[in-house]
Specification:
Elements lengths: L3 H16 L9 E5 L4 E4 L15 E4 L4 E3 L6 H13 L5 E5 L2 H7 L11 H4 L5 E4 L9 H11 L4 E4 L3 E6 L2 H23 L9 H33 L6
Parallel strand pairs: 6-7
Antiparallel strand pairs: 1-2, 1-5, 2-3, 3-4, 5-8, 7-8
Helix pairs in contact: 1-6, 2-5, 3-6, 6-7
């Protein structure tokens, strides 16, 4: 089985997404670009809480399954292939309809506001796709979505969900986790019906810069911890 460690990372990320309620049925998709216009991606028919490394599909740029026993969902193929091809920094691409950030994406001009420390880590790193065109189940819509990401690492998709991209699954998952935490705090704060305490721009920039200097190191440590928990509690994900 090729790319075993990358498969294990994807299986672990999918299981943790289910634990954190970032998943939606058997929908949504995580992928890794392994080079040569080939991609690892989760199959359509397996619940994320039960994903194993051996379940992860290896597909090519035509959508053909090179390794694996199941199928790849159409929107998964078109969205992820387009992002991997157009965004060199997006080796790992995680797409979910996680509830709190998607809620913000469903209101007019929905934005992650700089009202919490977790939000600050995303300063100048989020792209917004404010045009919902239905399912991304063809090449044109996949490429349109991908064009909105640009050189950012996070994309909020109106009426749809989010994408977090990064050099590794661990880095991308760290962003996915903290993005939902930031969105949840914002939604809860807004529900109080009182004025929001927005962090001054100068403090946002300074703090975001400090977080960015250690982000990848912190994300790697976070990811090792999460993998370690699964190693003990659900070791079958490694198979």
């Amino acid at each position: 089985m090729q790319f075993l460690e990358e498969r294990r990372d994807l299986a672990a990320a999918l299981r943790w997404a289910a634990r954190y309620d970032l998943h939606e049925g058997i929908c949504n998709h995580f992928s890794v670009d392994v080079g040569g216009d080939k991609y690892l991606i989760n199959p359509w028919e397996v619940h994320w809480s039960q994903m194993r490394a051996s379940d992860i599909l290896l597909i090519n740029g035509e959508g053909e399954v090179l390794e694996g026993e199941r199928t790849v969902e159409d929107t998964a193929f078109f969205i992820h292939r387009a992002i991997h091809r157009t965004a060199p920094h997006a080796k790992a691409v995680l797409h979910t309809h996680m509830p709190y950030m998607t809620a913000l994406a469903c209101v007019e001009n929905g934005r992650l506001d700089m009202v919490s420390q977790n939000a600050v880590r995303f300063h100048d790193r989020i792209a917004y796709d404010d045009e919902y065109n239905g399912l991304g189940n063809d090449d044109a819509e996949g490429m349109r979505m991908a064009s909105k990401l640009g050189n950012k690492t996070t994309m909020v998709m109106a009426n749809h969900g989010v994408v977090c991209a990064g050099p590794t699954v661990g880095v991308a998952f760290d962003d996915l986790y903290y993005l939902e935490k930031a969105a949840k705090v914002q939604v809860l704060a807004e529900s109080l019906g009182r004025p929001m305490r927005v962090i001054p721009e100068s403090i946002v920039e300074e703090t975001a810069r400090a977080i960015g200097q250690q982000q990848h190191e912190f994300a790697a440590s976070h990811w090792r911890t999460l993998r370690g928990i699964l190693d003990r509690e659900e070791p079958e994900y490694l198979d």
